[in-house]
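Protocol step 4 of 5: obtain the predicted structure for the target chain.
Materials: sequence only (see below). No template structures provided, no constraints applied. The aim of this step is simply to have a reference model before the mutagenesis design in step 5. Sequence pasted as it appears in the construct record:
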Amino acid sequence: MKTVVICAGGPIAEIANIEPYKTNGDVVFIGADKGSMHLLNLGIIPDVAVGDFDSLSAEEFLVLSNQVPVVNVAPAEKDETDTDLALSKALDYQPHAILLTGVTGGRLDHYMAVLNSLYRFQKDHPDIQFKIQNKWNEMLLLSPGVTILPRHQHFPFVSFFAFHGSIEDVTLTGMKYNVVNETIEIGNSRFTSNEVLSEQGSISFSSGICLLVRSSDQ
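Step 4 output (C-alpha cells):
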C-alpha cells in the first residue's frame, strides 16, 4: 500500500524521522517549496517538488531543478498554500496514507492553515489516513467510531481535543485514565496527556471530529 511523505519548509530540526521510508519502494516523496531542499539535505531526492519556491535562492532552485525529476512551479499569488498543492499532488498516487512533516515550526499562520487543510482533505478522502508528524509529536483527525491506539514507545502521551463539534459518548479503554460516555467540548483541555498502559488502548465516540495528538518529552 502506497504512502506519500510530504516535507514542507519548516525548520529542518523539527522534521520527523523519515529515514525508515527511504528503503520502502512503495513511498513517494513530495517536497513543498523549501521542503524540497530539506529532503535533498537529508539524502532524499523528491519524486516531485511543488510550490512557488519564493523561499529558495536562485542557486538552490538550480540545484533543485537539476536533481528532482518533476518540478511544478506555481505563481506566487495563488489561492492554495504550497502544502495544499503538495496534498493535491499526493492524491494522484492513490495512497492509503499521507504523512506531513515540516509544517509545525516557524510561522503559526502556516501551521493553522495546515490543520485546516488536514481537516478538509480528511473529510473529502476518508479512506486515506492523513497524519502530521515532527520529532516529538504526531497528529491525526478521528471520525466517529472505534480507533485502536497501540502503545507507542516514542510517543507515550496521548491527548484528545474537539476539533469540529462536540465529541459525544467518548469511551477510553486500556489507558491510564479510562472514561465511559463522556463529552469533549470545544475548548476543553481535560483530555490532555493520557497514556496507553495496555498493549493497545482505544477511543470510541459517536459524533464530532476528534484531534488526536501523540507526544514525547524528548
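Step 4 remarks: Residues 3-135 form a domain with the Rossmann fold fold (CATH 3.40.50.10240). The CA atoms of residues 9 and 103 lie 7 Å apart.
Proceed to step 5.
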